[in-house]
Amino acid sequence: MSVHLAEVPEGTPIVIWFQDEARIGQKNGVVRQWARRGSRPRQPADQRYEDAYLFGAICPARGTGAALALPQADTEAMQLHLNETSRHVAKGAQAVLLMDRAGWHTTTNLDMPNNITPIFLPSRAPELNPVENIWQYMRANWLSNRVFESYDAIVDTACEAWQRLVAQPDTITSIGMRDCAHVGQSQCRMNIDQAVLGFAGAIVLIGLGFGWFVTPYWLLLPAFAEVNMIQASFTGFCLAAIVFKKLGARSGCAFS
């Protein structure tokens, strides 16, 4: 990954995104459904051929995503989706976008946004792309066992399903998180944690000094002085953690 990010300024937060497309059409799928025991539930089916493509990208670490429902999958559609994804990348961050080697992904006719760095997954390896699992989840919950009367109905349903997905950031994180998705966030978290520990250590020392020297009864009531020192130290540590967590969130870093 360091080769792909060689031109990215040092210190820029790195966020991992995954991208893929799914075809949604009138020849729809059938999945399990709830029914009374012993009954034989009916499920609708359609033999027409109208369809649309849902371009989707997710950032598991942030629990967010970007999508467009388009009539076809080609270079023009991919360009529109790249532009849409770019708008959702955290401000000041660089997105590493992992995707398969479809022709409209690898073409040199794409104008890649400045805040996106593409990395192509190995061929015939869909298990490396968690967006495939996102499609499975959406089909199982919102897109199957139904009939679409028109192209507009397909697009409306696809958009509604995606909006329901992004309203559940924990679901995106749960389904989409992979070890490689921790790359940028781990480095950012490590830097912030080091700063928190250093600053909190200084606050603890100040708290100890405050509890020892400022308490007017430290000679007469050592137990009372000890309580003051603990309270001051704990308060200082909590304030330091809160301050640096807020700073990290503003810079686009991820915390868990």
UniProtKB/TrEMBL annotation:
Alphabetized UniProt keyword annotations: Membrane, Transmembrane, Transmembrane helix
What sequence ranges are listed for the domain Tc1-like transposase DDE? Answer: 16-153
A molecular function (GO) term? nucleic acid binding
Q: Sorted alphabetically, which InterPro entries does this protein's record hold? A: RNaseH_sf, Tc1-like_DDE_dom, Transpos_IS630-like
TM segment ranges: 195-214, 220-244
Query: What protein name applies here?
Result: Tc1-like transposase DDE domain-containing protein
Organism of derivation: Rhodopseudomonas palustris (strain BisB18)
Kindly list the organism's lineage. Answer: Bacteria, Pseudomonadati, Pseudomonadota, Alphaproteobacteria, Hyphomicrobiales
